[in-house]
Amino acid sequence: xxxxxxxxxxxxxxxxxxxxxxxxxxxxxxxxxxxxxxxxxxxxxxxxxxxxxxxxxxxxxxxxxxxxxxxxxxxxxxxxxxxxxxxxxxxxxxxxxxxxxxxxxxxxxxxxxxxxxxxxxxxxxxxxxxxxxxxxxxxxxxxxxxxxxxxxxxxxxxxxxxxxxxxxxxxxxxxxxxxxxxxxxxxxxxxxxxxxxxxxxxxxxxxxxxxxxxx
Length: 215
Fold this sequence. Notes:
Elements: H1 4-9, H2 12-15, H3 31-34, H4 51-54, H5 65-76, H6 80-83, E1 88-92, H7 96-108, E2 112-116, H8 119-129, E3 133-136, H9 145-154, E4 162-167, H10 172-181, E5 185-188, H11 193-203, H12 205-213
Parallel strand pairs: 1-2, 1-3, 3-4, 4-5
Helix pairs in contact: 7-11, 8-9, 11-12
């Protein structure tokens, strides 16, 4: 942000002796106006009686949260994305315990989790962030996992995206329906942490190899 102090001290010809607002004709003592560090005196010089108004700092424009997030992820995350270690993994899960477990496993695998709890929000997030992998619960509100998978596959950005169904409905018909909707694989709940880790490494093999080399 541009400080108001820099603007005030530049107009020293009008302020004269800013410490004595009553004697505007005494311009010989300019030492006080040059001391921009004294925020209590001076101000703009045009209105010596209103220092509170004169010292209102200029605030920077707020950057939308999604833009800041993308900038941080793509350009500054300590170079992790540049080295190919970190991948974005979208977790679509409405159960708090299942979400917490998946989050921990994704982070331990050195990837970045993005979380949503319903299908409609998940679609908007996937469209905006373009994750490398989606871990998809099939029974989620607003737009179930089957409809979500079909909608993603219709989009140009979603044709090559990796997507794995993670569900307690693990009968053969459920598995076949998930694959037909567009999922690449299926993981039944409940699962062991190493099982989900194996799925992540299977569908992000290049990422997994680079992460192991970096250890």
